[in-house]
Design a protein that fits this description.
The complex is a heterodimer of chains A (342) and B (499). Chain A has helices at residues 7-30, 34-43, 49-74, 82-99, 105-134, 138-158, 192-209, 211-221, 223-228, 239-260, 271-281, 289-309, 314-329. With 342 residues, chain A is mostly helical. Chain A has a domain at 61-282. Chain B has 499 residues and is an alpha/beta fold. Chain B has two domains: 6-241, 3-Layer(aba) Sandwich (Rossmann fold), CATH 3.40.50.300; 259-494, Rossmann fold, CATH 3.40.50. Chain B has helices at 46-53, 76-82, 99-104, 118-132, 147-159, 171-174, 180-192, 204-210, 233-241, 298-306, 326-331, 352-356, 372-385, 401-414, 431-446, 458-464, 487-494; strands at 6-15, 20-30, 35-39, 61-66, 69-70, 84-87, 165-169, 196-201, 213-218, 221-227, 259-270, 273-283, 287-292, 313-318, 321-322, 335-337, 365-366, 369-370, 419-423, 450-455, 467-472, 475-480. In chain B, the strands form five sheets. In chain B, strands 6-7-8-3-9-10 form a six-stranded mixed sheet, sandwiched between helices. In chain B, strands 16-19-20-13-21-22 form a six-stranded mixed sheet, with helices on both faces. In chain B, strands 2-1-4-5 form a four-stranded antiparallel sheet, with helices on one face. In chain B, a hairpin with a 2-residue loop joins strand 4 and strand 5. In chain B, helix 8 packs across helix 9 and helix 14 (401-414) runs parallel beside helix 15. The longest helix of chain B has 16 residues, at 431-446. The model of chain B is unreliable at 243-251 (pLDDT under 50). Classes of the chains: A mainly alpha (342), B alpha/beta (499).
């Protein structure tokens, strides 16, 4: 009988080998020129500062949405309305930006970001309030509310705020003085990258070092225990939702000021769901959200580059992403030994 | 000579998170149709060793030969497939399913096309019920069962699979006093049809009474194995603890102060049936023990006091104020050790320190941020004072049952409550832990706190009560200082023969 120690190293190794070899096999099967596709897939994100910068900008957005989800998870609640909250935060940012007139750059930026954050917080907060008041399942209410808000935002972009001179379904461009400072050439990478990293550490301190974080985590782990301890826990059905939605709203307004500079129909789509994926990769730990978001953004960038430069199809690139994501989250690849015959 | 059914050699397991050696080179040999007792104090490694055998914990090293086959089960279902079943101290059933569904789970008799053959399942269940004298109502939802019925269901679900070895973790702790006999009967029945039983227990008398062999564990090691007929509880106790401990705390003649807790004609009616009707007073410096058999109203009393149930009539007074809920009890700084230690009294996925600071966590913070140093210091103080095996950052679920209880007890008692409510204080505790908790309760009493104990352990009740209240069928059958009342007289009152 062997010792089982060292199995965790083996587990990680198996996962990594599988995560790399399965897309390679899939690409080899599907592509006319597999070597080229594989090369673009794995090295594409590093081939230019443009690609690298965009990947890092996407990382920043995923960090924020991942944080939003993980705080909700920690409190034992679910926020499935990320898509709508990001979108609503973004459209709020656009509308405020277009109407802010002559307000100076920095103040204007702060106002726009705050408005986006509050919009996301408010929407998620509604579900938290319903949960507290009438025990409405937040899984359902966040999801449904988000669905409605996506349509409403689509309408706002396509009708009252539409820029008729554009061939896109989009709003007018926001004033340039509100653009966030860019960090890497023509890529979208901007200072929101540092702000989202700062948000990770703030979230960590909040969750693990503050008394409110203690209450929230206990509520998430064992509500009976919190009640038994005499801690009023009902507000922790609302507060984590506010924070979660706030993070999503902030991500939406960052992507307007830092990247798109206007509202385009469906322009933040995917950020909400991908936030959940990032949280799962990170095992719900705020600190691990940074590498988690990086991995996810790298995969997205790799498939995008491979799609543009080789014959990889859109569907296939998504399939590869799904396989890798599945392997990463199946972290308990237990190599358990069967009872062997003697 | 027969080959043994089970051999375990050099089993070791360290939980990596905290590098505590739970099992450290343990050996165990169990013969065919043998009742084998594993005994030892809390944290000795008994449960971990058996969890390894039942496939729930994978050992770091060691060898297992079961039924002439060598191998270590990777999962509980693998172990079951080999014929090893374990009944846990904390029962694992799915409350939303029926008794029958729980019992057949994983071994559903197939009627073809993936449909369960219900007739066959019922038939087999009935056979088992008769064979082992375990009644069951197959269509009842598990969430509606009381704890005895849950225990029976869990047991039947194991027996439903064709096992060769049954592991019982503290079997009589969770059956009430009166049903111990039927547990014994069941164990003997299993033996008589050629099956082996391994029993983990704290109860010395039980070990000597029913076991063929007794293995003593201490500090993760198996110290020795004896023939049960060659030993007695007194000798066993010496082996387990090294020296004899004085187990009986001295009852101090006390002068009692003002009333702290008063229940005045507290009534609980459910579905038109009177479940509980009780009046009692707990004064400063007084230990009041409420005892009774199962379903005599003890559980209801606890739920009324915790605020889970609302009284139908009557008054709960705390000093001069009327209380209504659990939160209020806590606001008034009353201590409470619930009988449901795991789900209510503990946050199992939090650390020892996080469990310890529950009642006063805000005092460890400055403008909303914790001071990590002071928490650590507090936790270490309690760990030392209460003899807990662990470190502050350790996750509770990695602790042994006894240590989990000590963490909870330390938290409730260190807060120096004026009133402490304890449900089933010694449930699942070994002798050392028992005397620790009694000592702490007596300290608290001597400081002038009032203590209300709800206990189904008769000996314990007699030993520590200043005032003893016996419930029968939801009513007070006896209330007095317990003097001149012996165990058999007590038993009669508890059974409702003598009022």
């Amino acid at each position: 009988m062997n010792s089982v120690s060292g199995s965790s190293i083996k587990t990680v190794a198996v996962t990594l080998v599988a995560a790399v070899s399965i897309p390679v096999i899939l690409l080899a099967l599907s592509s006319e020129d597999p070597l080229q596709s594989i090369t673009f897939f794995f090295t594409g994100p590093f081939q230019s500062t443009y690609n690298l910068g965009n990947m890092l900008d996407n990382t920043a957005m995923l960090i924020l949405t991942g944080l939003g989800m993980s705080i909700a998870f920690r409190a034992g609640t679910f926020n499935l309305g990320g898509e709508g909250q990001v979108y609503a935060g973004a459209i709020t940012a656009v509308i405020i930006s277009l109407n802010i007139g002559n307000t100076a750059g920095f103040t204007g930026i702060v106002i726009v970001l705050t408005a986006g954050l509050l919009t996301g917080a408010l929407i998620a907060g509604i579900s938290g309030f319903l949960k507290k008041q009438w025990n409405t399942d937040e899984l359902i209410s966040t999801f449904l509310l988000s669905g409605a808000i996506i349509h409403l935002t689509d309408f706002l972009i396509a009708n009252p705020f539409r820029d008729r001179s554009s061939f896109l379904i989009s709003t007018e461009k926001i004033p340039e003085k509100l653009f966030l400072y860019k960090l890497m050439g023509s890529s979208h990478l901007n200072i929101s990258f540092f702000l989202s990293i700062a948000a990770v550490f703030l979230a960590y301190i909040f969750l693990f070092k503050s008394t409110t974080g203690y209450e929230i985590r206990l509520t998430g782990l064992n509500r009976k225990f919190v009640e038994y301890g005499g801690i009023p826990y009902k507000r922790h059905l609302v507060i984590p939702m506010l924070i979660s939605g706030g993070m999503y709203g902030l991500a939406g307004s960052f992507s307007v000021l830092g990247n798109f500079h206007m509202g385009i129909k469906g322009f933040t789509a995917g950020l909400g769901w991908n936030g959940i994926a990032v949280t799962l990769i990170a095992g719900n730990n705020p600190i691990f959200i940074i590498p988690g978001a990086l991995i996810f953004a790298y995969l997205e960038a790799g498939t995008e580059v491979a799609m543009i430069h080789s014959d990889l199809s859109f569907e296939f690139s998504n399939l590869i992403k799904a396989v890798i994501f599945f392997l990463i989250t199946a972290k308990r690849f237990k190599l358990r030994r069967k009872v062997t015959l003697g | 000579m027969d080959t043994p059914l089970l051999e375990m050699h050099g089993i070791a397991k360290t939980f990596h998170k905290n590098s505590v050696k739970a099992v450290d080179g343990a050996n165990l040999i169990v013969g065919q149709s043998e009742i084998h007792i594993i005994i030892g104090e809390n944290g000795a490694g008994k449960s971990t060793l058996m969890h390894i055998l039942s496939g729930e914990v994978f050992p770091d090293s060691g060898k297992i030969i079961f039924n002439n086959r060598e191998g270590i089960p990777g999962t509980p279902s693998e172990a079951l497939g080999e014929g090893i079943g374990m009944l846990h101290q904390h029962i694992k059933l799915i409350p939303e399913l029926t008794v029958l569904e729980n019992i057949i789970l994983g071994a559903e008799p197939s009627g073809g096309y993936g449909i369960i053959n219900r007739k066959e399942a019922i038939k087999k269940l009935n056979r088992l019920s008769v064979k082992y004298d375990l009644s069951a109502e197959p269509d009842k939802l598990v969430s509606t069962l009381n704890s005895d019925e849950k225990q029976k269901t869990a047991l039947l679900s194991i027996l439903f699979q064709d096992i060769k070895l049954l592991i019982l973790d503290e079997p009589t702790t969770f059956f009430s006093e009166l049903k111990t006999d039927s547990v014994y009967k069941l164990i003997r029945k299993l033996k008589s049809i050629g099956k082996s039983v391994v029993i983990i227990t704290h109860k010395l008398k039980e070990a000597a009474a029913i076991g063929d062999f007794i293995t003593v564990m201490r500090g993760g090691k198996t110290i020795l194995t004896l023939k049960a007929s060659e030993t007695d509880p007194h000798r066993l106790s010496n082996i387990i603890f090294g020296d004899e401990k004085n187990l009986s705390p001295v009852r101090s003649g006390s002068i009692f102060g003002n009333p702290l807790l008063e229940l005045k004609n507290l009534l609980f009616i459910k579905n038109g049936k009177e479940i509980l009707d009780i009046s009692l007073t707990v004064r400063e410096g007084e230990i009041v023990v409420v005892t009774g058999i199962r379903e005599s109203g003890l559980e209801t009393l606890e739920k009324l006091l915790s605020g889970e149930y609302k009284a139908s009539a009557g008054i709960i007074m705390y000093k001069t104020a009327e209380l209504s809920g659990r939160t209020e009890l806590r606001k008034r700084k009353a201590g409470y050790i619930p009988s449901d230690r795991i789900k209510t009294g503990t946050s199992t996925e939090s650390s020892i320190a996080e469990n310890m600071i529950l009642l006063n966590y805000k005092s460890f913070s400055k403008s909303g941020i914790f001071r990590a140093g002071s928490i650590k210091k507090f936790a270490y103080t309690l760990i030392k004072k209460y003899g807990i095996t662990g470190v502050p950052g350790q996750i509770m679920s990695t602790l042994s049952g006894g240590n989990i209880q000590r963490v909870m007890i330390s938290r409730e008692i260190e807060a120096n409550p004026e009133l402490l409510i304890v449900a089933e204080p010694s449930r699942g505790l070994d002798i050392k832990s028992k005397s620790l908790i009694y000592n702490k309760i007596f300290n608290l009493k001597n400081k002038g706190s009032g203590i209300l104990i709800i206990s189904s352990d008769i000996e314990e009740s007699l030993r520590i009560a200043d005032r003893l209240i016996i419930l029968y069928d939801g009513k007070v059958a006896y209330s007095g200082d317990g003097k001149g009342i012996d165990r058999s007289a007590l038993g009669k009152i508890m059974l409702g023969y003598d009022r």
